[in-house]
Design brief:
It catalyses: 6-carboxy-5,6,7,8-tetrahydropterin + H(+) = 7-carboxy-7-carbaguanine + NH4(+). The protein is of the alpha/beta class and 240 residues long. The chain is built from nine helices and nine strands. Bound molecules: iron/sulfur cluster (SF4).
């Protein structure tokens, strides 16, 4: 996957979409009033990716899916609403470290958010400046059903760095109960806590069905269960 040319890597973000207000649909902040900045580009390609428009040229016209937006324009958009949760997602946001560093620190300085979350696959370590500015990393290491090879999806040194930040929450996408064994192996090997298990699915029927199957086994592991609230509410609508 080739990232587009970025005119100024310190000042401009390559974005897929900005949207909100809406609710954070996944993980520890589910249900919170939030605005989303979805960055363009991902260096891996999960077979079930729910935001493939950020990087999959076989399925999307990537030229139409990306735009260059300055940090100042993003800050201006954020200043138009009440400070709440800002979620920087993707794609893989940590592919644009310098400009994300500047963005999250500017959001803090101008008090445009009470909390900032970055959603990442856990394959690129955050910079120290990013780690100091965010509230939480929602880290989603991918399982074998992503059809990625293990070395593509599990980077031990990155998992260690994210754990050391003290700000990582681990959100695993599961399709069925068998996936919990794989999650347990990763949790035990890399000492990952807290754990959230979230059903894979882009329609409410699938999400609900998988949550019902996963609920008791997730409880038995002592883990947390996440829904996909935006999917339950709005199915697969873009920008919600
Ligand atoms: S890491 Fe995330 S954005 Fe990248 S392909 Fe996988 S699900 Fe999609």
């Amino acid at each position: 996957m080739k990232l587009p040319v970025v005119p100024d890597a310190e000042r401009d973000l390559v974005i897929n979409e900005m949207f909100g207000p809406t609710f954070q649909g996944e993980g520890p902040s589910t249900g919170r009033y939030a605005r989303f900045i979805r960055l363009f580009g991902c260096h891996i390609s999960c077979v079930w990716c729910d935001s493939a428009q950020t990087h999959d040229q076989r399925r999307y016209d990537l030229a139409a899916e990306q735009r260059i937006v300055s940090i100042e324009d993003v800050l201006s958009w954020l200043s138009g609403g009440p400070a709440g949760l800002v979620v920087i997602t993707g794609g893989e946001p940590l592919l644009q470290p310098r400009v994300v560093e500047r963005l999250v620190n500017a959001i803090r300085e101008r008090q445009l958010a009470t909390d900032i979350e970055i959603e990442t696959s856990g394959t690129i370590a955050p910079t120290a400046l990013i780690a100091s500015a965010v509230t939480r990393f929602n880290v989603s290491p991918k399982l074998a059903h992503s059809r990625l090879r293990r070395h593509q999806r599990i980077r031990p040194t990155v998992l260690k760095d994210l754990t050391a930040s003290g700000k990582a929450s681990w959100k695993f996408v599961a399709q069925d109960v068998d996936d919990l064994d794989e999650i347990q192996e990763l949790v035990s090997t890399y000492d990952l806590h807290p754990v959230w298990v979230m059903p894979e699915g882009t329609d409410s029927t699938t999400v609900l069905a998988r949550m019902r199957v996963l609920a008791d086994p997730v409880l038995a592991h002592g883990w947390n269960l996440s829904t996909r609230l935006h999917t339950l509410l709005w199915e697969n609508d873009r920008g919600r």
